[in-house]
Amino acid sequence: MSRRARRWAVVVAAGRGERFGGSTPKQYTALLGRPALAWSMSALLESPAIDGVVVALAPGDRRWSRLPESRNPKVLACTGGDRREASVARALEALAPLARDGDWVMVHDAARPCLRREDLDALVSATRRDPVGGLLAVPVPDTLKVDDGGGRSARTVDRAGLWRALTPQVFRYGLLRRALAFCIERERSVTDEASAVEALGLRPRLVPGRADNIKLTTPADRVLAEAILRAGRRT
Ligand code: C5P
């Protein structure tokens, strides 16, 4: 029997985050007293558009079971892989008994704790009838330089038409599995789902999002993320 297309979320939290430093992996760093991963999941868990969430964890992760989110009946955990795309592929495998090819899957970085509900809703409505799917993205505001390998600017890149890719990124379950398998088999490195889908010759929709949906990368981002989350509480 046919059923409506469901919408799943995958949160990738299996990275080591080496540029972030410290002994706590960045997905568990405390932001206003709450782990980044819990913040990153909150908009997804609050959204009635999402039927379930799969979290991909690092092997041997002992922090996850301490989070209240680990006991949420809408949440399933699995072990991730050695690269981001392998972690997404594992999460999609874990969804196999529940998901159909026509269902939507929204992939979000655990390292992006400042995702707002309004951005999630904008992504859902902009892609609802899209044949490919899409991603939150922000037009690049700065002038871009290419270095000469010796610390000097060799040339300037025209920023017109350039975007920063954010997450969530949303694609149909079947398409995303095919795209990731295509790239993994060919050992093509992909840093997001959209690039895997582009490798199949398709063009994901760019959905303008908020520039403050930042990714925790260096220790300075922690301070910035806390300021963004604090400001979000007031709006
Ligand atoms: O390292 P980077 O910041 O690009 O990672 C983006 C997201 O992908 C993070 O949330 C990280 O935990 C996740 N990741 C993963 N499995 C890996 C590498 C990264 O789930 N092997």
Describe the structure.
The model has no long low-confidence stretch (mean pLDDT 95). Helices cover 29% and strands 25% of the residues. It has six helices and eleven strands. It is globular and about 55 Å long. The protein has a seven-stranded mixed sheet with strand order 5-4-1-6-10-7-11, sandwiched between helices. Strands 2-3 form a two-stranded antiparallel sheet. The protein is of the alpha/beta class. The site of cytidine-5'-monophosphate (C5P) has 18 residues, from β1 and α2.
Rough shape?
globular
Structural class: alpha/beta
- Per DSSP E runs of 2 or more residues, the count of β-strands stands at 11
Secondary-structure element pattern, one letter each: EEEHEEHEHEEEEHHEH
Rg result: 18 Å
| Distance between the first and last residues' Cα | 44 Å
What do the pLDDT scores average to?
A: 95
Low-confidence stretches: none
Q: Which oligomeric state applies?
A: single chain
Q: Please estimate the helix content.
A: 25-40%
For the biggest sheet, the summary is:
7 strands, mixed
Strand content: 15-25%
Tally of contiguous helical segments: 6
Strands of the widest sheet, in order across it, are 5-4-1-6-10-7-11
Could you outline the blueprint of secondary structure elements for this entry?
Blueprint: E1 7-13, E2 30-31, E3 34-35, H1 36-46, E4 52-57, E5 75-79, H2 84-95, E6 104-109, H3 117-127, E7 133-139, E8 144-147, E9 153-157, E10 163-172, H4 173-185, H5 193-199, E11 205-208, H6 220-234
Parallel strand pairs: 1-4, 1-6, 4-5, 7-11
Antiparallel strand pairs: 2-3, 6-10, 7-10, 8-9
Helix pairs in contact: 2-4, 4-5
The structure holds cytidine-5'-monophosphate.
Cytidine-5'-monophosphate binds next to β1 and α2.
